[in-house]
């Protein structure tokens, strides 16, 4: 995995040395919230990084786009169906064999609650599962579905719990998987403790325990690293950019930045005034200084993004370019649409209404807060009044589902979700993307083409539909891409080499040491 060390000029005052990590020691990590109940088929409050520690897929996504064996060692197509040969000798951590019956039990549990997984077309396409023998499973499909393997590699919902813990109502009695870790303890408000699975089929991890402290505030997390209370920070926004750059200069730490993983963006609501008007959205696209956001808020820890997806994603090399930062052009667009400034006025008006909107963000996220304030300042210069609204994560998520926002922070999901699964979710009202697009006159055609592209067997037709979809969304300016999101890694040098995971959400604790 590509890695890049960071250096900074500032030196930190002397702090005590950390003790050296002994073989099999506890590695202390932190996360803003608890791991959750760790149901493999469920979403929030389950945390993806922790689900991936306990539960495994049939196949695994490998950086660069390859699909590799995991709990299945091989697979083949028979018409629309997929046949998987299962890895022999694997057991769940409660001793239950992992076999075809276990796969069928988990697939059926997911299919019984399809409504919970409407965002992922794979679940709608699977008709059922059957055990051909103990070591062979058939997944039956309604249609040809080209992203099958990519979506089987996702952290949720198709990973596998022991049949012994699956209840008829779809819940679980305990978090029991086949993965390299077990959940040993959960203390509310304090930590989650994971211990290694000594019987793991892939070989037991070297660390004996992963202690995950609940630390909601990035500044507190940075202080915990400095004082030795935690050993490792890993993720997109676990540390603010300034703390990351400062600690990267400390010789006690190793720091690295991953290659781009997903897109950090603002979604603009085409279903609510004033962003229901294309000229207003186009003016916003020209009125925000993207380069300044990347330089002054992200401190160049992420590259600027001009498009919804990076061109390295499948079907996304389309030559699209973002309009340049041009306040004069933005002002001209607004003037042409009838939004005028009175002499001495600061906010444009039209038909007795101010050109004003809210910008919703997670209040505890220092980076989003700083970016929101920068956007507010940029747009004020062209006569748009922006009101930043910092709220708790649950409220922000509720706004994404309800469409009660003018602009809202969001991001794409990265490989192996992008672009197909992310586009598929655009058809579901529970997502900010649906709400952002709902006012577009071509929204029915967008949804129709998304459905078509996922089941197309004609490569040329599929590429043409992707081109139309991504070009249309780009031209309609319902997204303002900010940067290509990266994971940042900072850890004590005594931990040795820590790789990045193959996807944005998976942290390879088992490969430490």
UniProtKB/TrEMBL annotation:
Cell location: Periplasm
Keyword Signal: yes
Signal sequence interval, chain numbering: 1-21
Keywords: Signal
Occurrences of domain Solute-binding protein family (ranges): 66-431
Superkingdom: Bacteria
Pfam families: SBP_bac_5
InterPro entries in alphabetical order: CntA-like, Peptide/Ni-bd, SBP_5, SBP_5_dom
Keyword Signal: yes
Family: Belongs to the bacterial solute-binding protein 5 family.
Protein name stated in the entry: Nickel ABC transporter substrate-binding protein
Record organism: Teichococcus globiformis
């Amino acid at each position: 995995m590509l890695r890049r060390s960071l250096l900074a000029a500032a030196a930190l005052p002397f702090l005590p040395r950390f003790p050296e990590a002994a073989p099999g020691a506890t590695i202390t990590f932190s996360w803003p919230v608890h791991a959750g109940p760790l149901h493999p088929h469920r979403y929030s409050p389950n945390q993806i990084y922790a689900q991936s520690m306990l539960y495994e897929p049939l196949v695994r996504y490998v950086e660069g786009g390859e699909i590799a064996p995991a709990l299945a060692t091989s697979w083949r197509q028979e018409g629309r169906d997929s046949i998987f040969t299962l890895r022999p000798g694997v057991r769940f951590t409660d001793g239950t064999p992992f076999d075809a019956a276990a796969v069928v039990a988990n697939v059926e549990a997911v299919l019984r609650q399809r409504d919970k997984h409407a965002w992922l077309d794979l679940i709608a396409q699977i008709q059922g599962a059957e055990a051909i023998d103990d070591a062979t499973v058939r997944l039956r499909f309604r249609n040809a579905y080209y992203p099958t393997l990519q979506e089987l590699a996702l952290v949720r919902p198709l990973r596998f719990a022991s049949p012994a813990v699956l209840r008829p109502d779809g819940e679980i009695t305990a978090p029991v998987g086949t993965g390299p870790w077990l959940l040993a303890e959960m203390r509310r408000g304090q930590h989650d403790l994971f211990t290694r699975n000594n019987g793991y089929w892939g070989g037991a991890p070297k660390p004996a325990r992963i202690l995950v402290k609940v630390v909601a505030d990035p500044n507190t997390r940075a202080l915990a690293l400095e004082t030795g209370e935690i050993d490792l920070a890993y993720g997109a926004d676990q540390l603010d950019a300034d703390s990351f750059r400062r600690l990267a200069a400390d010789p006690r730490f190793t720091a690295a930045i991953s290659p781009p993983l997903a897109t950090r963006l603002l979604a603009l609501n085409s279903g609510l005034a004033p962003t229901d008007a294309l000229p207003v959205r186009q003016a916003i696209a020209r009125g925000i200084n993207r380069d300044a956001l990347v330089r002054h808020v992200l401190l160049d820890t992420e590259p600027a993004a001009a498009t919804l997806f990076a061109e390295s994603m499948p079907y996304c090399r389309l030559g699209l370019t973002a309009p340049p930062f041009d306040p004069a052009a933005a002002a001209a667009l607004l003037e042409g649409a009838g939004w005028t400034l009175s002499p001495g006025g600061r906010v444009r008006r039209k038909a007795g209404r101010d050109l004003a909107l809210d910008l919703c963000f997670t209040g505890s996220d220092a980076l989003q807060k700083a970016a929101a304030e920068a956007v507010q300042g940029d747009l004020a210069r062209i006569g748009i009044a922006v009101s930043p609204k910092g709220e708790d994560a649950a409220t922000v998520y509720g706004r994404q589902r309800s469409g009660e926002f003018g602009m809202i922070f969001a991001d794409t999901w990265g490989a192996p979700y992008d672009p197909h699964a992310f586009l598929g979710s655009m058809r579901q009202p529970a997502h900010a993307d649906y709400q952002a697009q709902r006012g577009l006159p071509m929204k029915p055609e967008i949804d129709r083409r998304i459905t078509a592209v996922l089941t197309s067997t004609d490569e040329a037709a599929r590429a043409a539909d992707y081109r139309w979809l991504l070009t249309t969304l780009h031209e309609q300016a319902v997204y303002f891409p900010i940067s290509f999101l990266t994971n940042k890694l900072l850890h004590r040098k005594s931990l040795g080499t820590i790789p990045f995971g193959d996807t944005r959400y998976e942290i390879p604790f088992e490969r430490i040491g």
